[in-house]
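Dear colleague,

Thank you for sharing your sequence with our group. We've completed the structure prediction you requested, and as agreed, I am returning the results in plain text so they can be pasted directly into your records. Please verify that the sequence below matches your submission; if there's any discrepancy, let me know and we will rerun it promptly.
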Amino acid sequence: MKKPFLRSLVVGLLFVLVYYAFQMIHGMMLTMNYVPDIAESYESVGALQPKVH
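Please find the predicted structure tokens below.
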């Protein structure tokens, strides 16, 4: 009974660690590739407007 519990705990922790590692790498890639553009900033307002309500 002890072995399946430990194995499931290790697999669960592994999934959590992989998920957070993916989130951090994805966030770093988005941050590195972000280029603010003031000339085209108002084009995204239409897409964001429904999310504000």
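Summary note from our side: The mean pLDDT is 84.

Kind regards,
the structure core
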